[in-house]
Structure to design on (650 residues):
């Protein structure tokens, strides 16, 4: 039970939170800090950033000493493909239209899973296109062009 | 008879055909997602949030609430039938519920779960109706000092009771608070952290954060997991429970309701903790503890009542104080804010139809669930067999169209993509995302009350020690931190000693 883990999760979290805290604190210095009684817009974020950086350092230490938690293994390819599919949707929606956006998103996202096949991707795209058109455009009246010219 | 007049306003709002429809859609969708593993209430509510923007506030909230408690019902159905908890709160129901099903008592188990939940829901609804006005009276006495102290307490407790490491939870709350500050500063009008971008002046879109961190991150986390499930559909011929089973269920249901109602009130409490606590209590008070895990009626009835009661009473702090006690409540507050309703004790006065309508709809929704669930079970069993590769592209597309529909703008979609990557990193680091959402909602509010308190005291920090309410709340928060940190320090020392030895 008490086997020593490498504490990778705490190490990474420590780095992230320290970095984010320092960044926040540094960025808030460009706004007036004010006094404790009359706080400027920079004071509260500066305080939060500082505390966060300290907590990050504590995590970093516990990670370095090997007492932290083991990190989960993140599937890299699906992470990138799913994010990419969301970006592709946004880019294509305004430039080409809903039809292209949905097809692109379904194909890229399905590519990330082990169950990709052309037939499935086409079927899902068509079904979703019909569904979105009926629900969003027809019933809810969202002004999104099927094909933007 | 204030209570009756209030409930009358509520039922009038909730019983309109329009709102009944949305209540029905809510519980139906809720039950469905409760069944599907890998799709939780947080992700679903985030997905449907943009749709509620177009609705009246009360209809939108009724639907979201329906999803939340519908998911509790759905989760227990799969737990009983296929030993698969659809929701984290129904993990306990697997233990004895599924054993009952294997002994041919599946119908009785489902009936006990449904009726127990209905009883708990009724009691919890009455509790909300009776206690919310009282609590709101107290909240009216709160000044900025007390509000700040209460937010500290709420966030501490919510982080403490959420699973995962405490220090990471606190770090996530702080990250959320910082992200919530992006945009115009209320006091000075300065644009903070906008990096000169116009689209950030009104802050980061809340729905984009929720979708990225929950809906999309869940997809990445689930996409490679093996989804093969064999569903042995049990015979459902006998839905009636025997008189003996009924007698065995009565007291556990009452105890479970009491436990759930109390734990639901706590920040960070709610359905999951309630069900675990109730199971532990039932096992302790039972005269036949050896039956637990072998299909004991009490081991199913108690936790089922408790999780539903907890799910409902967790609305009380959100409705009366404007403090979300868990991620779902944070989403509800976000939905209120979109409709320009500031959550807090004033809602009851300024929008009584929203407040009481929501409460009345909970009771109606619970009744619908009992009627709806039992006959539809064969349909639900087929739903569990839906493959994940069909499900996740649907979630993606519906979310993205929803994000676009908020302002007819693609910027929220870009943000959601960013928060997906961030969410995946958090998942890898084992940092729970729900505390971040709570911080994000409370960020601007917390800053405002903090600044106002110190303005009142002319910069004297001791103002937080002068109000007895604030002292009490801050000391409870500090005590909770100590309780959680002490064993860790001791364990750390022990580990250090062992290494030396």
């Amino acid at each position: 039970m008490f086997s020593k883990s490498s504490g990778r999760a705490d190490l990474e979290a420590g780095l992230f939170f320290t970095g984010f805290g320092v960044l926040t604190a540094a960025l808030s210095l460009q706004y007036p800090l004010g006094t404790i009684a009359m706080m400027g817009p920079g004071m509260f974020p500066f305080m939060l950033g500082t505390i966060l950086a300290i907590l990050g350092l504590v995590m970093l230490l516990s990670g370095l000493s090997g007492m932290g938690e083991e990190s989960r293994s993140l599937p890299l390819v699906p992470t990138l493909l799913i994010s990419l599919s969301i970006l592709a949707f946004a880019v294509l929606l305004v430039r080409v239209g809903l039809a292209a956006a949905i097809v692109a998103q379904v194909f890229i996202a399905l590519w990330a899973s082990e169950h990709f096949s052309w037939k499935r991707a086409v079927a899902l795209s068509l079904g979703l296109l019909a569904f979105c058109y009926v629900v969003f455009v027809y019933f809810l009246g969202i002004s999104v062009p099927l094909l933007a010219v | 008879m204030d209570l009756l007049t209030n409930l009358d306003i509520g039922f009038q709002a909730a019983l309109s055909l329009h709102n009944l429809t949305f209540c029905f859609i809510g519980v139906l969708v809720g039950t469905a997602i409760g069944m599907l593993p890998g799709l939780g209430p947080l992700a679903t509510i985030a997905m449907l949030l943009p749709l509620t923007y177009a609705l009246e506030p009360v209809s939108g909230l009724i639907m979201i609430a329906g999803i939340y408690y519908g998911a509790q019902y759905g989760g227990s159905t799969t737990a009983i039938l296929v030993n698969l908890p659809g929701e984290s709160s129904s993990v306990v129901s697997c233990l004895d519920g599924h054993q009952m099903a294997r002994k041919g008592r599946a119908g009785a188990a489902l009936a006990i779960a449904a009726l127990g939940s209905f009883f708990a829901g009724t009691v919890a609804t009455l509790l909300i109706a009776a206690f919310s006005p009282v609590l709101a009276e107290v909240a009216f006495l709160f000044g900025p000092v007390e509000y700040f102290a209460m937010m500290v307490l709420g966030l501490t407790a919510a982080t403490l009771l959420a699973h995962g490491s405490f220090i990471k939870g606190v770090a996530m709350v702080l990250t959320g608070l910082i992200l919530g500050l992006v945009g115009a500063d209320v006091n000075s009008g300065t644009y903070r952290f906008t990096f000169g971008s116009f689209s950030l002046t009104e802050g980061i879109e809340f729905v984009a954060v929720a979708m990225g961190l929950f809906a999309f991150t869940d997809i990445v986390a689930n996409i490679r997991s093996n989804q093969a499930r064999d569903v042995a559909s049990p015979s459902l011929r006998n839905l009636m429970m025997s008189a003996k089973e009924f007698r065995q269920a009565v007291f556990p249901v009452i105890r479970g309701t009491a436990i759930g109602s109390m734990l639901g009130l706590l920040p960070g409490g709610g359905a999951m903790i309630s069900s675990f606590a109730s199971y532990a209590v039932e096992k302790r008070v039972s005269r036949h503890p050896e039956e637990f895990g072998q299909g004991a009626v009490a081991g199913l009835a108690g936790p089922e009542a408790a999780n539903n009661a907890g799910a409902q009473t967790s609305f009380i702090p959100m409705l009366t104080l404007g403090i979300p006690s868990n991620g779902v409540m944070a989403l509800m507050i976000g939905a209120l804010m979109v409709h320009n309703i500031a959550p807090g004790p004033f809602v009851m006065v300024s929008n009584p139809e929203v407040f009481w309508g929501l409460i009345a709809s909970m009771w109606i929704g619970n009744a619908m669930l009992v009627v709806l669930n039992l006959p539809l079970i064969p349909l639900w069993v087929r739903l569990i067999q839906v493959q994940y590769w069909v499900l996740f592209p649907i979630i993606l597309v519906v979310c993205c169209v929803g994000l676009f529909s908020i302002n007819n703008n693609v910027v929220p979609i870009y943000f959601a993509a960013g928060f997906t990557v961030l969410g995946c990193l958090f998942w890898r680091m084992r940092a729970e995302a729900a505390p971040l959402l709570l911080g994000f909602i409370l960020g601007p509010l917390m800053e405002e009350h903090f600044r106002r308190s110190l303005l009142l005291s002319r910069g004297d920090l001791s103002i937080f020690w002068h109000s007895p309410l604030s002292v009490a709340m801050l000391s409870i928060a500090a005590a909770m931190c100590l309780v959680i940190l002490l064993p860790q320090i001791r364990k750390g020392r022990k580990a250090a000693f062992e290494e030396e030895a």
